[in-house]
What we know:
This protein is an alpha/beta fold.
Amino acid sequence: MSFLTVGHRGVMGVEPENTLRSFVRAEREGLDQIELDLHLSKDGALVVMHDRKVDRTTDGRGPIADMTLDELRELDAGLGERVPVFEEVVDAVGKPIQAEIKDVAAARVLAGVLRERGLLDRVDVLSFHDEALREIRECLPGVRTVLVAEGPMGSEIVTRAQAVGARLVSLSLRRISLALVQECHRAGISVIAWTVNTPADLALVRALGLDGAVTDVPDIKRAVESGN
Length: 228
């Protein structure tokens, strides 16, 4: 594949993360794909937010799972933005989406939405949790899965990716070795890294021969395009 730039929670370095404003800005800035995070609300909506609780990114407090969608809609997610649901993001932007799921329950609900709306060609499903990726593949054969990891990494990454059918892994830039990248490539698995926000980060990505970068800022996309 060509070098892939992924907007992390939209472009969270310049806009409130995981908001429609951030996703629309990522698309306008030309990022190739848009990454977002999903949790289930108390009433089963696919809520776009990274943390388990709303405390850090909104003016509310408490776990997402204890709040209905109507209650979540009342919160300010930054600059007056409201907490979106997955379906709204799909409608608001046209770029491919990387949707990160936190658990098996979210995998099942997401599988239903992807099937009903015919989104298999547009949405890749990410997770740190192997069981969540296995679940969505069982619910929706043919879905593209991406294994995410950040701890100490070696050959087990290849084994885990193969077990969940992932042809792409998204790894912490600070944990990747050249040997691991080469092993992934020999197995037919592409490698992208997060989070790549500076020229030094991008230089490391290139030195490692990675296939893409997850970034908080539009500058990385421009640097890739200019060859800097």
